[in-house]
Amino acid sequence: MDPKRILRMDYQNKRNQNSSKTGNQSSFGLMLSLLLLPLSLMAQFSVDSYGDQGVNENVAYTSPAASITGTPVGTVTYSLSGPDASLFTINSSNGVVSMVERDYESPLDTDGNNLYSVTVVGTDSDTNTSERELDVVVFNDCSASDTPQMFKLSAPDSLGDTMGDTATLRISLIGSGGVPQDGVAVMFVKTSGPASITSPSGTTNASGIYESTVTSASAGVSEFTAMYDTTGNGTPDTTVTLGSPTAIQFTTDVSSFNTGGHVGIGTETPDSSTVLEVAGTDKGVLIPRVALTGTADTATITNPAVTLLVYNTAAVGGLEVGFVFWDGSEWKSVCAR
After folding, report:
1. Which whole-number Å values give the CA distances from 230 to 149, 164, 328, in the listed order?
2. Is the pLDDT of residue 233 over 70?
């Protein structure tokens, strides 16, 4: 055979062998590249929503366990971030979020509105992460144990006459939880009018009450405030804001005073213990509905009187929708019993 032909055949065979080897190497390289892709590009997962979460005040909060959608790499561990993260704890294995009991009247969340916000972060074994926002609302619990302090000035009998019929002033000191404040030094103070206080100072009884009769030699209206001792030294030093001032009226003859100074709507004989009685069997009293802007709002209603009652229609600024009253410094919710 021609030596040149033999050389050409040998060259072609080697070329074919190299071509085959190169193709195999390319296929192997592609497979190897796929195997060596970062697992983070192949793993996608998310921490599912915890749903709407809320708890009554003075009750500890515990969330459901976290649930995952998708395919994380290895084990997912959980941690917390966000504005109120320091107020929560989390089980790193199952994502259960916990918070100790909170006081509705003394919120600790960043916004001070009893909405505690936190971010749950899930991290898999290849450091892939997924985040889920969690908001926990703390509700106001109007139970008997949550009865607010009620220091009040009132006039159980607000009408007297110059012929000897007396009126009555009362101070009631009821502490938080409905506990009467016994043995507290108190004092009535007349701010205007002709009346005289029979016993202007004394101490509260076991029911947290101190009373005095009021007399007058002249007809007219007198106004009163009251003070109580906050230091325990026996000297009244703080004004009772709720009910101050309280008015007492004196006439020349209480027996001839029209309906005893009482007003009746729907009745001609209002109860003797009332200033105003509204009677009815198929209708109610409609309280003004007002959209307040917050607990300290004195612009919507200018100079609100202490104990002024309205139905708030706007859940903003720390207020809930419902009945609220002005306590002299802020609007407070009237709790349903």
Report:
1. 14, 35, 18
2. yes
Mean pLDDT, residues 220-249: 90
Distance CA 215, CA 1 (A): 149
Q: 72 preceded by cis ω (within 30°)?
A: no
List helix spans (H) across the chain. 3-35, 39-42
For domain 42-139, the question of CATH label 2.60.40.60 is answered with yes
Cβ atoms of residues 153 and 171 within 8 Å: yes
Statement: residue 20 has pLDDT above 50: no
- CB distance 287 to 323 below 8 Å: yes
How far is residue 165's CA from residue 145's CA, in Å, rounded to a whole number? 40
**What is the C-alpha separation between 103 and 57, in angstroms, rounded?**
5
Domain boundaries, the chain: 1-36, 42-139, 147-252, 286-337
Separation between Cα atoms, residue 237 and residue 230, nearest integer Å: 7
d(CA 154, CA 326) in angstroms, rounded, equals 16
CATH tag, 147-252: 2.60.40.10
How many helices (H) and strands (E) would you count in the chain? 2, 25
pLDDT at position 201 over 80: yes
Strand 276-278 and strand 185-192: the pairing is unpaired
- What integer pLDDT is reported at residue 123 of this predicted model? 95
> pLDDT, tens digit, for every residue of 66-103?
999 999 999 999 999 999 999 999 999 999 999 999 98
Q: For residue 94, which phi and psi values (nearest 5 degrees)?
A: -120, 0
Across the chain, mean pLDDT equals: 82
| Tokens 């003004």 found at | 288
Task: Please indicate whether the domains covering 42-139 and 147-252 agree at the CATH topology level.
Answer: yes
Find the helix or strand (DSSP H, E) in which 130 lies: strand 129-139
Q: Which of 118, 125, 117, 186 is nearest to 152 (CA)?
A: 186
